[in-house]
Amino acid sequence: MSELFRLSAFEAVAQLRKRELTPSDLVEAAIARIAAVDGAVNALPIRCFERAREQAAKLSAVPPSSQHARFLHGLPIAVKDYNDVGGVRTTYGSPIFADNVAACSDATVRRLEHMGAIPVAKSNVPEWAGGHTFNPVFGITCNPWDTRRSAGGSSGGSAAALACGEIWLATGNDLGGSLRTPASFNGVVGLRPGPGLVPRGSRMQAFDSLWVEGPMARSVRDVALMLDAGAGHEPEDPFSFDRAGTSFVAALEQSGLPARVAFSPDLGIVPMAHEIAAVSERGALRLRDLGADITGDIPDFCGALAGFQTLRAVLLGTMMGPLLAQHRERIAPEIVGNIERGLTITPQQVFQAERERWQLYHRMMRFFDHHDLLICPAASIAPFPVEQRYVEEIDGQPCETYIDWFAITFALTMTSCPVLSLPCGFTAQGLPVGIQLVGKPRGEAALLRAAHRLEEILGIATQLPIDPRTAAQESTCQ
Asked: Start-end ranges of CATH 3.90.1300.10 in the chain?
């Protein structure tokens, strides 16, 4: 039982379905692993162990014949601390909400619980938003590949917990790369699905389509398993919808692989560390082993970065303007600046940003007339030292804002296409490097299938989970 954390989510669910394991077995295995390794990474600071034990006991009494085909049968998961779990704290990494307890689970979590998932802990996040997971409530989350390095953000706690085997699946969400960057930094898989596939809770601006919820896991198959359980319609989210057809797990084994793929080291618009570009290109070129033709013919991303910055500011201003008026002194300065920018955006800037997004989408559609995938790095740099608040330069080129260093992800947010972050190699220092695979709108099944086959060739998923590397452990993660 002490080695259950090494099972994949897919294997664990198969054993739960056959009654070879019970939900309680896996809940206790997760609790033991968290106790053993979380002190080194600080990934899961909010624990709901007794709640999980109660859910496990209830699910153990449910006969398999009454369970949906995509049921998770009592598999423990981690939930990001931007999402609500009923009866458990949701802090958003903010001292303003340090003692906030959610009355009920939000739409994202509620659907997973309905499908047999058991939240066992909440994963650490940056204060409100950001690419590096630290906050004044719980401190810094460290990267298990090197605990002196950042786990990325804002789903850094989820990614770190997965990499070191504290949990089998974890929720993430993604506005400008909050799911994809930490997946890359920690050597795990994260999927940013298209808008509406995974329902969002009522805290979100209901008609925004930039922020999406998505699954994170140690392999593509496990991501597909979680997507099967988490996708669907919830009344809280007007964009959500019920998806008919083959399950995402079953789609992995169907025929049809990418015939023509484009790779770009920088999308023609962002700075990129030379080592990251080289490792990413080597990983992408392995698609030739599947018979794919690799080109450099990518869409024009001109205007995408400025447009995203405008629309992100509008979203933060919409959601957080009232909070700023009441609690300015208790909000991180970077977030204050983002909210203030949103409050000063002109109608002309919004018009231009929406035009850029509209035009980019149609350029992507023309691209997919003759390509199956677009691939690029999932981050412009390797995981950086935990003591840095954010990245200030990339290979000597200064960053103008605190989010410039993950522009490679937020450029793709503007396409509305599904994007998967897949580990593809390592730096000379042994730090993970990931690539982004961009698929056609509503093409998550084909995207997962291609990523699954590439993952098999690259062979990195078999290296997880790992024990945190704490040879130079410092007090910053406490």
From this structure: 4-303+351-477
Q: What are phi and psi of 8, to 5 degrees?
A: -75, 160
Token digits for 428?
């000379």
CA-CA distance, 318 to 314, in Å (whole number)? 6
Please choose, from the candidates 281, 334, 300, the residue with its C-alpha nearest in 3D space to the C-alpha of residue 411.
Answer: 300
One-letter amino acid of 1? M
Query: Which ranges in 196-332 belong to alpha helices (H)?
Result: 220-230, 248-251, 274-285, 304-327
455/193 Cα distance (integer angstroms):
18
Note the residue count of the chain: 478
Predicted local confidence at residue 63, as pLDDT: 75
* CATH number belonging to domain 4-303+351-477: 3.90.1300.10
Ramachandran angles phi, psi of 466, nearest 5°: -120, 160
The span from the CA of 423 to the CA of 44, in Å, is 22
The dihedral region occupied by 62, where left means phi > 0, alpha psi between -120 and 50, and beta the remainder, is beta
Burial label for 239, CB within 10 Å (0-12, 13-18, 19+), is: middle
Strand partners, 437: 375, 420
- At 84, the pLDDT band (50, 70, 90 cuts) reads very high
**Amino acid, res. 69:** A
Would the pLDDT of 406 be above 60? yes
Contacts 24+ apart (CB under 8 A), 338-346: 338/129, 338/312, 338/313, 339/313, 341/313, 341/317, 342/313, 342/314, 342/315, 342/316, 342/317, 342/318, 343/317, 345/310, 345/313, 345/314, 345/317
Query: CA triplet 20, 445, 225: central angle to 5 degrees?
Result: 20
Structure confidence by residue, pLDDT tens digits, 292-342: 999 999 999 999 999 999 999 999 999 999 999 999 999 999 899 999 999
451-455, Cβ contacts within 8 angstroms, sequence gap of 24 or more? 451/189, 451/220, 451/420, 451/422, 452/220, 452/221, 452/224, 452/252, 453/257, 453/290, 454/283, 454/286, 454/287, 454/290, 454/422, 455/189, 455/219, 455/220, 455/422, 455/423
Residue 61 burial (CB count, 10 A): 6
Most confident of 41-50, 399-408, 462-471: 41-50
Q: Give the model's confidence band at 390: pLDDT under 50 very low, under 70 low, under 90 confident, else very high.
A: confident
What Rg value do the Cα atoms of the chain yield, rounded?
21
